[in-house]
Amino acid sequence: MGLTSTRPLGNSGFQIPTVGVGTCPLGELFEEITEQDAQATLETAWDSGIRLYDTAPWYGRGQGEHRTGRFLYRKDRDDYVLSTKVGRRLFAPHTRKTFQTAPWQGGLAFDHVHDYTYGGILRSYEDSLQRLGINKVDILYIHDLDTGYFPNEQDLLGKLKELESGGFKALEELKAAGEIAAFGAGINEVGMINRFLDRYPLDVFLVASRYTLLEQTLYADELLRAQQQGAGIVIGGVFNSGVLATGIHDDARYDYGKLPHSVADKVRKLQTIAADFAVPLAAAALQFPLGFSAVASVLYGPSRPAEVTQNSASFQYPIPTAFWLALREQGLIAEQIPLPGLPV
Q1: Which of 15, 97, 217, 240 is the most buried (most CB within 10 A)?
Q2: Where does the record place the NADP-dependent oxidoreductase domain (predicted)?
Q3: Which residue(s) pair with 212 in the sheet?
Q4: What is the mean pLDDT of residues 236-255?
Q5: Rounded to whole angstroms, what are the CA distances from 103 to 107, 111, 295, 303?
Q6: Percentage above 90 pLDDT, the chain
Q7: Active-site position among 59, 116, 141, 254
Q8: Given 37, 75, 80, 85, which residue is catalytic?
Q9: Is 146 assigned a catalytic role?
């Protein structure tokens, strides 16, 4: 499996590369990143053969799209696949002098509002084209529509109603007009794939941090349903925000926060087996999701050129079948979960 290989995106008729770069870290979530480092990171990804780039208006409050666009806009548009997200509109804050960009450590000083209406989706799409400086994207994802952002059930239902009343129609029209090749939803939480599929047959789900070496709880109930209904799956957050890339250390991150003891214990077990087979843990984390045939691609989010170089090597690292079987035998991956190179 190479960096330039592709897979079909569900039943959309669209092929995408099996590995891509996510630009959330370049929006300065954890630290400020110089423009030089950001562009060098993207340049290293391109030179290594990466041709899938995912961004969003929310990443750095516009910074992620600006940086992605500044890198890609002079490339031949047929040479790469570009995805971004809809559901937020950015605007200048009313309190410019005191505005804080949190949770981003850097980013741009723009406020936002969640808007999943017909007009809101189209406005979000057009604004993204302007920030990117590129007049076409391939995939649009409905972004952050879950209980993490809408903990009140009535608020969540209200936003889902916006989609049902017009947001889905806007996405349909963009696809029918050839503006985009596919559309779907970003998923951060168990249960949301079903809630979307109950309402609309989406082309793709971008599942962040919920189908990794550490967690596969949504496989049986949700990922299989998505596959059966023709939706492709893209996996983001393959390192669970870092710990599966760095291993255990004092500042290891899990899902954007501190590492819980229960998770640390599982990581230690994974590290032990990986060491027994001389397999880098990061390589296993990158390659694991592709054992499931419905997964079209995996994304990782680099912030430095060295991370791209390391992940490119990890993605191509030869992993013996015995390693995956050992994980299953030790109860770290359930019996029904598909594994790379093994029959389902």
Answers
A1: 240
A2: 19-326
A3: 215
A4: 83
A5: 9, 12, 30, 17
A6: 90
A7: 59
A8: 85
A9: no
